[in-house]
Amino acid sequence: MWSPGTSSLCTLGWKPSLALMAILGFLMMAELTSSSPAHPALNLENMSSAELEELANQLAAQELEASSHQSTQHQPDLAGSSLFSASAGSLGTSSSSHALNTAHTVISECVTISMDEGVFHYKSRGTGDQVCGLYLVADPDKTIVISLHYLDVDCHRRGLISIVDGWELNGEVFPSVEDHEKSFASRFHEMCGLEMTGSEQTFVSSQNAALIQYRIPVSGQGFSIRVQHVHNPRPCNILVQDTEGAYTLENYGRHVNCTLTTLFDAKVRILYMSTGQHVSPTQVKYSRKRIQKREIIYKCGKMGLEDYVQIGGSSGLDSSKMQVVDEFCGHSPMPNLRRTTIFCGMTTVRLVSSGKYHNKVTVEVRKADFDDIPSANYVCGV
Prior knowledge:
The protein is mainly beta and about 375 residues long. It has helices at about 20-25, 50-55, 95, and strands at about 85, 105, 110-115, 120-125, 130-135, 140-155, 160-165, 165-170, 170-175, 190, 195-205, 210-215, 220-230, 240, 245-250, 260, 265-275, 285, 290, 295-300, 310-315, 325-330, 340-345, 345-350, 360-365, 380. The strands form 5 sheets. Strands 14, 15, 16, 17, 20, 21, 22, 23, 24, 25 and 26 form an 11-stranded mixed beta sheet that branches. A 6-stranded mixed beta sheet has the order 1-11-6-13-4-2, covered by helices on one side.
C-alpha cells in the first residue's frame, strides 16, 4: 500500500541523463499544448489511445464533468493531506477571479513541459515500469493549481501517480529542502486506485513550478487533471523560463530563503538590494580588521552575518549544492556591481534571511551565449 510522502518516483528508478536536463531547458521555450472545440463529458475509461487523441482535437471550451464516483483499491485518504483541499473552494477569490481555461491536451511524450493552463489527459500504452513526468511552470508571480478529474491506476501492478510541490530531476528538487517552508515529505502526494470525482481534489503549489510524476504499467489506464495559474501575492521561489528580465526576491520579514533558478546559462546583475541591518565600521569586524564603511559588503556569511544574497551555478536543481560565485549584503538602491556570468546549465540567485529584517533584492537576468565564455566568472566542469 502506497502512502503519501514516503518516497518519490525518482527513488523508484527514474534517473534521467544530463542530456535530458538540456532538453528540458530547450523545451521550456516551446508551447506544448493545443486548444480544441466543444464536447460533452468524457468517459476516458473505455477509450483507446487513438480515440482519445482524435477526441482531443474536437474538444472545445467546456468544463470536463465526471458523472459518477467510485473507488476500488482506494489508497491514502487525500482529504487528510496538507497538500489537498476538499474542493476548489479553498482557493478563495483566486479561482473565481481567474478565467477558466478549457483547452484539452493529450500527453503523448514521456517527458512533457508545459507553460499552459487547461485539461491534460494521459492514457498508458502499457509502458511497463517506465516513469514519466509532466513538468508545469507558470509566470513568476503565479502558483499552479492542479485539480484531479479522473484517476485509473492499478496499485497492485505497481502503478503510481505523484503530485510534487516543485520540480524533481536526477534526485534533486526545486526549491531545495533548505529553501522551502514545507517539509520534504509533505511536498509529495502519491496515489493510485480508481477515482471519477465530481467534487475535485485540488493541489496548490507554493511557487510557479509543479510536477506530475507517473508510472502506469497497465495499458488503457491513466488520469485527467486540470491546471490553472493563480496570482501569488508573495512569490518567494521562482523558476525562470524566460531568457531575460528583471525579477524580485523578497522575504517579507520571514525566516525563509528565497531562490531564483534559471534553466540556462545566465548573466546576473543586481539592480537593487536591501539585506540585513545597516552596518557601520564599528558594527562589523572580520579577522580583527574593521570593514570600511560602504553600502555593499562582500563575503557576508564568513563575517557571521545572517542575511545576504548568493549567486552561483550547478548542473542540478538543488541550490544547496551550487557553487557560490558571489555573495553580497547591504543596502543600495543602485549598486554598481558587475554582472556575474555563469555557465553551469542552471544559474541561481539565493536570498538568505534570518527573519530579523525585511530583505529584498531585484536582479536582471540575461541569457549567456558562446561569446560570454571568455569573461565568465564560473564554468562548471572546468
